[in-house]
Design goal:
This protein is α+β, with helices and mostly antiparallel strands and 291 residues long. The chain has one domain (4-289): Metallo-beta-lactamase, Chain A (4-Layer Sandwich). 23% of the residues lie in helices and 30% in strands. The protein has helices spanning 4-9, 14-17, 62-71, 109-115, 133-136, 157-164, 170-176, 229-232, 244-261, and strands spanning 21-24, 29-34, 37-50, 78-90, 93-97, 125-127, 152-156, 180-183, 188-190, 193-197, 206-212, 215-219, 264-266, 275-280, 285-289. The strands form two sheets. Strands 1, 2, 3, 4, 5, 6, 7 and 8 form an eight-stranded mixed beta sheet that branches. It has a seven-stranded mixed beta sheet with strand order 9-10-11-12-13-14-15. Strand 13 (264-266) and strand 14 form a beta hairpin.
Length: 291
């Protein structure tokens, strides 16, 4: 199934995003404690991205990507990327970070929320890392109604302006506009949650640092897509980045910081549940998933 929905979301990367084929998967929810907060990884879908040079290793070609994948004994024709979201439950608030591809293309997020015992009407805040379709598609139902009717939708002012400037986003932007509240990256957006400036993938892309009782977790959004290619070869150009050079620099600097600090990470496109640490290797980085 080709994803026409992904194609229309961001004209700036249409040629790259159009190749992704969303694969419906069953719902899943995995919870853990972060200080006083209950945090849950939620599955939405999987994106199958062909190794055709349009996304991964855009500057080095499919043969180089194939060599890398073969060395890790992985399928060298297609990369499977998770499409997941993160739920944070704290006193008085139920916060969802990103919303997946949405029910129009078979996203499982509503069923994953049900597994976690959450009614969509109970979500108080939706935090958006950026406005690509696999992060904002689930803001509305299959009929176009608000999926989280009582939630305030928060994203950076730069990202909201960029999203509104694309005619292909007109319908979604109109549906959510009265719920949107923007912010400048770097500030507190909810109790215990601070936005992290990560522009490069998109102009207003942010991550979110969640902190409680001395414990912290950073949702890195789309700084890295593949737990193998993005980490082992962060300097390779990624066709999903609207700013190829800016995305590469951001990826390199962010991975270096995360590895140096030993931060606990949520990466929405890594294998579910997408939580773990990024560790330095001799030639790049590696993913150390939570067990």
């Amino acid at each position: 199934m080709k994803s026409r929905f992904l194609f229309v979301v961001s004209a700036g990367v249409a040629s790259a995003i159009a190749v992704a084929a969303p694969v419906p998967v069953g719902p899943a929810a995995k919870s853990f404690r972060l200080g006083a907060f209950r945090v849950t990884a939620l599955r939405d879908m999987v994106n199958a991205v062909p190794n055709d040079g349009s996304v991964f290793g855009k500057d080095v070609g499919p043969a180089a990507v194939k060599t890398l994948l073969d060395a890790d004994h992985l399928d060298d024709t297609t990369l499977q990327l998770g499409v997941d979201a993160l739920l944070v439950q704290e006193p008085g608030r139920t916060i969802l970070i990103d919303t997946g591809l949405g029910p129009k293309v078979g996203g499982a997020l509503p069923r994953s929320l049900a597994l976690a015992g959450i009614d969509p009407a109970a979500v108080t805040d939706v935090l958006i890392t950026h406005s690509h379709g696999d992060h904002v598609g689930g803001l509305v139902t299959a009929t176009g109604a608000l999926a989280f009717p009582n939630a305030t939708i928060r994203l950076s002012a730069t990202e909201w302006a960029w999203m509104q400037g694309k005619p292909s986003n007109a319908e979604l932007a109109a549906a959510i506009a009265f719920k949107v509240r923007t912010f400048s990256p770097g500030g507190v957006v909810a109790p215990g949650i601070r936005s992290v400036p990560l522009a490069g993938h998109t102009p207003g892309h942010v991550g979110y640092q969640i902190k409680s009782e001395g414990q912290r977790l950073i949702d890195i959004g789309d700084v890295a897509h593949s737990a193998v290619v993005s980490l082992e070869k962060p300097a390779w150009i990624n066709g999903y980045d609207t700013d190829a050079t800016g995305g590469r620099v951001r990826r390199e600097t962010t991975l270096a910081m995360l590895a140096a600090h030993g931060d606990h990470v949520f990466a929405p496109h890594f294998p579910f549940p997408g939580t773990g640490k990024i560790v330095k290797t001799a030639s790049g980085y590696a993913w150390q998933p939570d067990r």
